[in-house]
Predict the 3D structure of the following.
Amino acid sequence: MNVVRTSNAPDARYRLPRTVAPSRYDLVLEPDLGAATFVGSEEIVLEVREPVDEILLNAVELEIDAAWITGEGGRRIDVADVRVDLETERAHLDLPVTITPGTWTLHLGFRGVLNDRMCGFYRSTYTSDDGVEHVIATTQFESTDARRAFPCWDEPDLKAVFGVTLVVPDGLLAISNGPEVAREPVGDGRVSVRFADTMPMSTYLAAFVVGRLEATDPVDVDGVPLRIVHVPGKGHLTASGLEIGAFSLRFFADYYGIPYPDRKLDMIALPDFAQGAMENLGCITYREIALLVDPAKATQEELQGVADTVAHEIAHMWFGDLVTMRWWNGVWLNEAFATFMELLCVHAFRPEWDRWALHARSRSVAFEIDALSTTRPIEYPVRSPDDASGMFDTLTYTKGASVLRMLEQYLGADRFRDGIRRYLSDHAYSNTETSDLWDAIEAATGEPVRRIMDTWIWQGGFPLVSVYSEDGSLRLEQRRFRFDAAEDDGRWEVPLVVRHGSSSDAPVGPVLVGPDGSSLPYADGGAVVVNAGGHGFVRVRYEEDLRARLMGALFELTPVERYQLVDDAWAATVAGAMSVADFCRLAQGFARETDLPVWQALLLGLGWCERILDGEPRERMRAYVRELVRPALDHVGWEARAEDPDLTRALRGALFSGLGVLGGDPEVLALAREIELESRGTGSPDPSLAAAAVSVIAAAGGPEEFASFLEARDTAATPQEELRYLNALAGFRDPALLGRALEIAASDAVRPQNAPQFFARALMNRDHGALAWAFVRDRWQTIVARLAPSTVVFVVHGVRALVDPRVVEDVQQFFTRHDIPQSALQLRQTLETQRVNAAFAARARGELEAAFGG
Ligand SMILES: [Zn+2]
């Protein structure tokens, strides 16, 4: 086993010297919401470790108007010159003399602008019922944007205590990381609000929010007051967020064996927010849809979205905030672990959602990227802010969480947790490298955790495990799974669970498949499930005989195992190792299927097939879909019943939408119109059916429906319904209507936070993706100018559905001339995915035409 490690040595130009380090910031910020500016002052207590005549710290887009230092005894030295280097985002403070090691205090006065790009100290707005626009000043610092709000040592290992004071108009709400401890008028209609000191923490976790906002009454969670802060009038959407918030606080304090590390927790729903949410210590910020929800009107997926996000951010209060990566190369562990804990917590919160089974679907997205030649190792060197930004992707979150789950299942949940507890208590208030976690789990379990995990962390890709029987034993071999036919260039230590027997209560055992494969005793000739439980980050290929045994006992397998059979088959189809006609035949074996993720996998594959057909073969394909899906919907029942579990409702929605959009079933369309009308009136149909109805109508809708959806978006009562109707506009298949939808998305009528996903959906429009592409291409500069930099690449994600050769060529050419430096690798991956899909479409079209040509 040979894992090559690349150097993690950071580029010195982007790193601050360790000759001077902060231990405390006393920070006063005075935002002017009307003028969208702020002034600030700070006193930073410094430990000077070597004689220096220059102090170097991070600052960008700030005017530093005053700078001096004081030493012991109050000796004052004015800074002679301030030079800001735009490229490296650093300020050089030249001192007239060399100062000696010891404790000094740096005093700075500065000014800045509340920007509109959702990073640093920025402006968010909302309009109240009386038509008045209100401004909120808020922050988003991760990874490297604290330096846009105040000059600082903006690197995660330079932890310090923050004492924050906000000077704001009386009557506005002001929030920061710690609880409010003092408030006094400053004489001009404003008040000075002081917050308690934080624990020592990284700059990227500081947060300030000021605006005309409301807070719920605090919920006492074992002594920690928990509140949700929101724009006025949305208090009725907070109950679910508070419930999962309180559950998560207790769940994690118990799991980690460490009390919550702050004195209060505010969760703030913001009208403009680039990502989903941000784990600022004690002051978590969210986009509204990730926190505010009406459970009576939301689908299971939408409710789960809130639960996931809240649990994820609260998991970070310990893993991330209390113990922090030393540098941004370690952000994968921070995010992978929080994602893993989010799933564990939500699984405990709503066992009926079977959260780990639903995770299999997200994992397939990670598999898809990780099968590309442009994939990357989970951990890689990070030098510049752009490199750090590029770390926040599917491989970090989803592949990272999945390999942690694989390890946890292999070691056993309790032993894994013991290792986590050891890691957190050993490194509290401090910083770590990835290997510190493996060492802690290794110490707690005695297993070769570092050796196993190094093979997953330091190389890209994942194995295809081939299974066959040979002379009374079962042989497991591995090779890398890739979409292209390039060389087989990776080997892993694969921790799997193997079950002898199809039934879920048959005996299981762990097996570590090494680079040269493994052999297991196999005498009885019965069914075998390799990757039992479906937690391994592997694809599996069974020899024909073994596969036939599993297909014969399909419904004895767990839902995730069945999901994985379908998903592995679909991946083999895209890779050209299985014919698409065989995939459609395999799908027929699932006629009795009643599990949501399995249906989602089937519909995904069939959806791709339907996309690439036209004319008569397409109509036959649609008839085939109707024959497959209708009996399943009949079985679940077309109407929701009060006693239906959440996943049954979600399944009904998925089947209804599949039958309507993919199958083009006229009965479904007629019913969808009734349901949608009912949901707009006084009735309240089942939310899953209501959401499915919107997608069915969009695919068949005309100008009247378009206008009605636009109005529904503007008057929606919840963030979920607002987004549902907005996104549906990208699904209209009339070119003129899609053109209008694109114009709307490029205008101020759509918040920049929602535009990237909208454009991606428009690019995936079944009939007119090329039209959407021409729009995006021609307006690229103006579209991008409105977006938070980290979200630009999400626009491009939609091109993976554009498989017409001329469009493929145009897209690929365009991005040789337009780069996205903060997401360079994600862009290359998306472009490669488009080429993979185009090759698949070219190959599969003929096969499908032969199969459905009559
Ligand atoms: Zn996170």
